[in-house]
Amino acid sequence: MSRLVVATLAVILVSSLVALFVVALQSRSPAPGDHPSFQEFQAMFPGDNTTVQSPVEPNNHHYFDSVAGMQEVIQMFRGHMENSYTWHEEIQMLKYRVDNVSSQIQTLGSHLGDARADIQMVKGALKAANTLSSQTQTLNSSMERANSEIERLKGSLQDANALNTQAQVFLQGSLDNTSAELQVLRGHLERAIDDSSMLKRELETATAQIQIASGHLEQTDAQIQELKAELENASTLNFQIQVLNGQLKNASREIRTLKEGMRGAAALSSQTQMLESNLKKANAEMQRLKEDLENTKNLTAKIHEEQSRLGNLSATTASQEQLQSTQNHLLQLILQGWKAYEENLYYFSYVKKSWHEAERSCVSKGAHLTSVTSQEEQAFLVQFTSNSYHWIGLTDMGTEGTWRWADGTQFNNAQSKAFWDKNQPDNWRHQNGQTEDCVHLRSLWNDMNCNSPYHWVCKKPMGQQVAG
């Protein structure tokens, strides 16, 4: 658009120069009567222009000089006249050109109007461009701030990536340890499942046997009732047997007496045979009653034995159910992140809290912040806390220097000296005036302000049946 404006101004300037040139030419083309040479000629020859009169001069030399000058003037006039005709043609041509230039000027004027409109539009666009320029400057400053913020975020991202790498290494180690523990627990679980299946089969067998035994027991109860009735009858029979024994003895004595006294008596012989027959019957009845009594005793012993076996089987079933429940609970805790060592379970947190909040979190899980009672337990804890500090349950709040465990375990000062870091505990006083009354560990122990956030370790007995 700026080139169009410059071209328009150049055309206007050229048109103005051409017009001035034409005016100048018109002013330089006078009529023949107005030309100085022609006026000089009229002065020399007053009168008719077509009649040449010879001046009367007594001096011929002056006359010839005048004639020569007149001829020279005539020649000059003729030259001027010829030039005037040529100029007239040029003027006509220039007028034609001026007309063309005027039409071009009008056309250029209309173009100039369009150009002015374009200039106004360009001015508006320029204002918008200025506005955009200020906005661009604002955006550039915002971009610079954004770039600085991006650089800062890049630094934070690098730090986060480093922490993420450390966390991945730590989690990979924990995952490897957990995988190994899970393999061991899977083996235990498979064996437990096999044992459970075997126990279920034995339980089903025992249940069937119990049902059979119950049927036998019912039959035995019926037999016992019958035997009791028979025993009551047997008691009566015993009395009768005793009576018969007495009678038999008396009869025997009488038989002997009769045999001795009346050996040859037929009546006595008949009575003797009858008594002997009665005696055999009585002996047979006594033998049957003795066998029934022996069977009753054996059956009673079997009943007691079956009842004892049934009690043992019930106890075994309850024990197996308790073992299965304990194993299921242990597996749930391990899946929730608990780790097993010796007879205890340990939970290593993934977030940070103060010592008091960490203890409350452990209590909500049925545990306490961990105590440390042996070198082996200390080594186990160091395996999972070597990358960052973790709260443990040791504190001397209330009485400085009197250390105690949160779970109530007795603190062994002599044994624990090897667990402290160099120059610890020092009860350092912080700028806010708070001292260090709680203990955290990484590789060794260090006392720290209880309100500082750290990871923590919970501990509870493995057989404790509480919510994980």
UniProtKB/TrEMBL annotation:
InterPro entries membership: C-type_lectin-like (IPR001304), C-type_lectin-like/link_sf (IPR016186), C-type_lectin/snaclec_domain (IPR050111), C-type_lectin_CS (IPR018378), CD209-like_CTLD (IPR033989), CTDL_fold (IPR016187)
Residues forming the C-type lectin domain are: 341-459
Q: What PROSITE patterns has UniProt attached to this entry?
A: C_TYPE_LECTIN_1 (PS00615), C_TYPE_LECTIN_2 (PS50041)
Coiled-coil annotated spans: 189-306
What is the primary gene name for this protein?
A: Clec4f
Q: Which SUPFAM superfamilies match?
A: C-type lectin-like (SSF56436)
In terms of CDD domains, this protein maps to: CLECT_DC-SIGN_like
Q: What GO MF annotations does this protein's record show? A: carbohydrate binding
Q: Which UniProt keywords apply?
A: Coiled coil, Disulfide bond, Lectin, Signal
Signal peptide stretch: 1-19
Pfam families to which the protein is assigned, alphabetical: Lectin_C (PF00059)
- What is this protein identified as? C-type lectin domain-containing protein
